[in-house]
Amino acid sequence: MSEHTSKQFDAELEAVRSRVLQMGGLVEDQIVKALDGLASGDMKVIEEVLAGDHKVNTMEVDLDESCSHIIARRQPAAVDLRLIIAVIKTITDLERIGDEAEKIARMAKLIHTAERMHLPRIELRHVGTLALAMLRRALDAFARLDSKAAAEVVSQDRQVDEEFRSILRQLITFMMEDPRTITRSLEILFISKALERIGDHSKNMAEYVVYMVEGRDVRHLHSGAEREARGDKLA
Q1: For 115-173, what is each residue's pLDDT tens digit?
Q2: Beta strands of 85-179 (E only): which ranges?
Q3: Would you give the end-to-end CA distance of the chain in angstroms?
Q4: How far is Cα 227 from Cα 100, in angstroms, rounded to an integer?
Q5: 8 A C-beta contact, residue 84 and residue 76
Q6: How would DSSP label each residue in 182-227?
Q7: Which of 45, 86, 116, 130 could form a disulfide with 212 if both were Cys (CB 3.0 to 4.6 A apart)?
Q8: Beta-carbon contacts of residue 202 (< 8 Å; ≥ 6 apart)
C-alpha cells in the first residue's frame, strides 16, 4: 500500500469512528429526552423521541454499509480489522439503545395519557443516571481508545442490575398491596428494564473497545464471578 493510499485509508477509518460518535451523541440525546418526558409529561418531548428513532436506524444502516465497503476495498488486517469489527458491533448496540429510548418514551406517553392514575411511587432517576453515565463513558473510551476506562464501564453494569432488581421487588409489593397499580407498575417495569438493557449494551460497547485496543475478547469473563458474588448456584 502506497503512502498516499495509506493516508486515504486512515482518513476513512477516522471518518467512520467520528460517525460512530455522532450516532452515540444522537442516542444519548434520545435517552435524555425520553427521561425528561417521563418526568415532566411534556408530550412534545416524548413525541420527538418517538419520531427520532428512524434517524438512529438510518445511521446504523449507513455506517454498516461504509464498513462493508472498507472491508471489500481495503481488506484490512490486524488492528484496522479489529476497529472495523468493533464499529460494526458498536453501532448494533447503539441502535438497540435507541430502541430502548423509544420504549421509555412510549411508556411515558401511556403513563401521562392516563394522568398518572394509580402510579406507584418508584424512583427511576438513579438507575437512569447510572445507565446514561455508562453510555457516556463507553463512548468516551471509544473516542480515546482507552481500554482501561472501558474495563471500568464493564464493572459498573452490576450497579445497574442491582437497581433493576430493587425496583422489581418494589413493584411486586405495590401490585400485591393494590391491584389498581398493576397497569402502571408494568409500564414502570418496562421502563426500568429498558434502562437495565441500556446498561447491558453500554457494557458490550466497552468490551468492544478492549478488543479493539488490546485484541482481547473479554465478553462473558465476568459472568461467573458475578454469579458467585450474588450467591447464585448453577443447576
Answers
A1: 989 999 999 999 999 999 999 999 999 999 999 999 999 999 999 999 999 999 999 99
A2: none
A3: 54
A4: 26
A5: yes
A6: HHHHHHHHHHHHHHHHHHHHHHHHHHHHHHHHH----TTTTHHHHH
A7: 86
A8: 93, 97, 131, 134, 135, 137, 138, 153, 157
Place of cell 411511587: 121
pLDDT confidence bin for 221, thresholds 50/70/90: low
Q: Residue 208 corresponds to which cell in the numbers above? A: 468492544
Each residue's pLDDT tens digit, 47-64: 999 999 999 999 999 999
Global pTM reads 0.89
Which residues fall within 8 angstroms of residue 83, CB to CB, at 6 or more apart?
13, 17, 76, 212
Which residue, 192, 194, 210, 104, is CA-closest to 154? 210
Q: Tell me the C-alpha distance between 192 and 15, whole Å.
A: 35
The CATH fold assigned to 3-230 is Methane Monooxygenase Hydroxylase; Chain G, domain 1 (1.20.58)
Other beta carbons within 10 angstroms of residue 62's beta carbon come to: 13
Instruction: Write down the domain spans for the chain.
Output: 3-230
Under DSSP, the state recorded for 187 is H
Is the pLDDT at 235 greater than 70, yes or no?
no
Q: Cell numbers of 210, please?
A: 478492549
Question: How far, in Å, CA of 26 to CA of 42, rounded?
Answer: 20
Task: Identify residue 55 by its one-letter amino acid code.
Answer: K
Task: Record the cell numbers describing residue 198, joined without a space.
Answer: 441500556
Place of cell 438510518: 58
Give the other-Cβ count within 10 Å of 201's Cβ: 25
